[in-house]
Design goal:
The protein has 737 residues and is an alpha/beta fold. Helices cover 24% and strands 20% of the residues. Strand 23 and strand 24 form a beta hairpin. The longest helix is centred in the middle third of the chain and has 21 residues. The N and C termini lie close together (5 Å).
Length: 737
């Protein structure tokens, strides 16, 4: 089945790419149609040509073992040579889901940074996410890239995962729908998008050897369903496999994941590319891998002369090599890479793109607390203390291969070590979008003074003599490293407590990659979750603080009260695995297992519902400067609708969340539909939803089964606070994908 869960209107946006409106390929690409053309090209290929597009290098100076970088390559993540005789273009690949990455300034250019993926997901707005995807795809194209390694959709099984900020949410429906929207946006520019990292890629600790244990049914109902929905709705031309092991096999060497699930169950027609340095042997080709990426990081170049020799000697290998080429060519033709080349030097409307990033940031900001209407702040304020977070310089960015930087590079850059590879490769960096400058613009008559907060006494004294204190607290995350716990580092919890004691009007703005604990929550007046808010984050935060923007973000991930509430209170391997960006085993110690059968498919809010525990803030939670009422859901079959009314005095947006609460007498908690609606004061609107039957089903015996019985649905302001349920009877049914 291929149910469309939401019909997202394609928004027009003037983007910098040398493609006319008539040439824009719209919402989806047609992999099936392109496959016929790919078959014809494979039939024309010589044996030597069949090992040209099946492997590529990382054209990055200093990026591991030395390689010769071709003249037509662009410094970035990857380069795959083309075949001029057959009109096959070279593939020029760049990271990542948040924009064209900076690669530590190696190209001498810059790009527009979208907010983190978890920030994007907090908007619950697929149309907005498609706009963001279209924007970053346009910039990739303008720089000469035709492959964007975007589409991160792994579920947030553990909020300590260092890549939490790169992924959307803990829910398969929300993650899949938003990933599909982002991919459609990217590929509307005739740029291939991946979906990644396939699959069950839940932590960075020991990331190349951590072995995931999970029952097939639980996997299909959670992480795999997120990928499946994202693939159906986005039609990504490529899937990138992951570093971790699944059931003992590397994800890029998993016959179960790549052949049985992706290609056979789901009928996927694009190609599977490896993550960089994730290919253990040539056998990965038989197990479903189609392309070896960043080959100099692997033990050998397996998909060049080695696979050519196998194909010459064995018919089965010859057939497999043809299929690898067919799939890569299918992606190239479906995305139109040959018809619409992407030469470097395209024009980019930086101002327009900055506004896209700002709009995403505004819709993703979540108001978590607002005691006594402390927010919005008055523009007539006379004195404001701004404390912490390098807020006089910029806003925090996540690190690793997804890091994007604007013109001039970071406003602030802090190395994570004083020597060695850590000092040069990853750093705590801040975008040049100062919240303090934006606050001054919002309150021009105020004395706005700043303290970084290294000395708590100094910060508290400034707070004590100010009308209001705004504390910016940061939690830095990076690919390659997990965080050990959910506390704010560098004594920031103590700083917030001291400032709150000195000034009763203390506002906390969190710039975090994911959830954090808040031991000071009862002492502050308001809390704003700004995530990593991107290129115009400072302006977006100030707009929310002063009420120009009514906050409408809703949490796409639960905030636990503490680590004891998690399925694994201690992150597996955190007590003995030596931190290593590469994730490679040390001293032969490569036995690290993580048991996802503990929670199974009950990830995040489902786990809290199952265990009867209360998180600090539940999935779907978020406040507004206005109020809304949501009517009872009207459910008929797999169709549902909910009427929403703005009962307050300000225009604002609400997010309808429809949950399955019981099935055939068994308590459940599953998000089965959602929709965002913007309303003027007193206005009402209806949100219509189509329920994907897989969200009501169990996966077993190779397919989906819906038991007969009464199904109860309720609308909630979040996953915990639900209205009255309505019940409908459903017949038993079973089907295969």
């Amino acid at each position: 089945m291929n149910p469309r869960l939401f019909a997202c209107t394609a928004l027009s946006l003037a983007l910098a790419a040398p493609i006319s409106a008539a040439e824009n390929q719209g919402d989806t690409i047609d992999l099936a149609a392109a496959q016929k053309r790919a078959d014809a090209t494979v039939a024309q290929m010589s044996a030597q040509e069949k090992t040209v597009i099946t492997h590529g290098i990382m054209p990055l100076p200093g990026g591991g073992p030395k390689v010769d970088i071709p003249k037509d390559a662009i410094i970035g993540a990857g380069y795959v040579a083309g075949i001029e005789r057959l009109g096959i273009p070279a593939l020029r690949e760049t990271d990542a889901s948040l924009g064209v990455t900076w690669v530590s300034g190696a190209r001498g250019d810059w790009a527009t940074a979208l907010p983190s993926a978890v920030s994007q997901a907090a908007s619950w707005n697929p149309a907005l996410i498609r706009r963001g995807g279209a924007m970053i795809g346009a910039e990739a194209r303008a720089k000469g890239f035709n492959v964007l390694l975007a589409g991160g959709v792994n579920l947030a099984r553990d909020p300590r995962n260092g890549r939490t900020f790169e992924y959307f949410s803990e829910d398969p429906l929300l993650s899949g729908v938003l990933a599909g929207a982002a991919i459609r946006g990217v590929q509307s520019n005739h740029v291939i998008s991946t979906i990644k990292h396939f699959a069950l890629n839940g932590q960075e600790t020991g990331r190349k050897y951590v072995d995931v244990k999970i029952a097939p049914g639980a996997a299909h109902e959670s992480d795999l369903l997120a990928f499946q929905i994202g693939i159906e709705q986005g039609q990504p031309a490529s899937v990138m496999c992951a570093y971790n092991r699944v059931h003992g096999a590397q994800a890029c060497d998993s016959d179960w994941l790549l052949n049985k699930v992706l290609k056979q169950e789901w009928g996927y027609k694009g190609f599977v590319m490896s993550d960089w340095g994730a290919v253990p042997s040539i056998q990965t080709a038989i197990n479903g891998l189609d392309h070896q990426s960043g080959e100099q990081l692997d033990p050998g170049v397996f998909f060049g002369s080695q696979i050519a020799g196998k194909a010459a000697a064995d018919k089965a290998w010859s057939v497999r090599l043809d299929d690898m080429n067919r799939r890569i060519l299918t992606a190239i033709y479906a995305a139109g890479l040959d018809k619409y080349p992407a030469p470097p030097g395209g024009a980019i409307d930086w101002d327009a793109h900055a506004l896209v990033a700002e709009d995403v940031a505004k819709q993703g900001i979540v108001l978590l607390k607002n005691e006594g209407g402390a927010l919005p702040l008055a523009k007539t304020a006379k004195s404001i203390a701004v404390i912490g977070g390098y807020a006089d310089g910029g806003v925090l960015s996540g690190a690793g291969s997804s890091q994007v930087m604007g013109k001039g590079g970071p406003a602030v850059k802090l190395p994570v070590a004083g020597s060695g590879i850590w000092a040069g490769f990853i750093s705590e960096s801040y975008h040049r979008s100062s919240p303090m400058t934006a606050i001054k613009a919002q309150a021009p008559g105020a004395a706005v003074l700043y303290r970084q907060g290294q000395y708590i006494k100094d910060a508290a004294e400034l707070a004590a003599r100010s009308e209001v204190a705004v504390v910016f607290a940061t939690q830095w995350m990076t690919e390659g490293l997990d965080v050990p716990d959910l506390s704010l580092p560098r004594g920031q919890d103590a700083l917030i407590a001291a400032v709150a004691a000195a000034n009763p009007n203390t506002i906390v703005v969190l710039e975090t990659g994911g959830p954090v604990k808040m031991p000071w929550l009862g002492k502050v007046k308001a809390v704003v979750e700004a995530w990593y808010p991107g290129a115009r984050g400072g302006e977006a935060v100030a707009s929310v603080l002063f009420g120009e923007t009514n906050p409408s973000g809703r949490l796409p991930i639960s905030f636990p009260a503490d680590e004891s509430q998690l399925p694994r209170p201690r992150l597996d391997g955190s007590d003995w695995v030596e931190p290593d960006f590469g994730g490679n085993p040390k001293n032969g110690k490569d036995k690290l297992a993580t048991d996802y059968d503990i929670e199974g498919s009950d990830v995040g809010y489902r786990w809290y519902a199952r265990t009867g525990t209360k998180p600090l803030f539940p999935f779907g939670y978020g406040l507004s400067y206005t109020t809304f009422t949501q009517g009872k859901p009207a459910v008929k079959g797999l169709s549902a609708s909910v009427t929403v009314t703005n009962t307050g005095q300000r225009a604002g947006a609400d997010v309808v969340q429809l949950y399955l609460t019981s099935r055939a007498g068994e308590n459940k908690r599953r998000l089965v539909g959602f929709g965002r609606v913007e309303l003027a004061p007193g206005a009402s609107g209806k949100v219509a939803m189509t329920i994907d039957p897989r969200l009501l089903a169990d996966w077993k015996d190779g397919g989906w089964t819906v038991p007969a019985g009464d199904y109860a649905f309720a609308v909630g302001s979040d996953a915990e606070h639900l209205g009255a349920a309505v019940s409908v009877k459903m017949k038993s049914r079973s089907w295969k994908d």
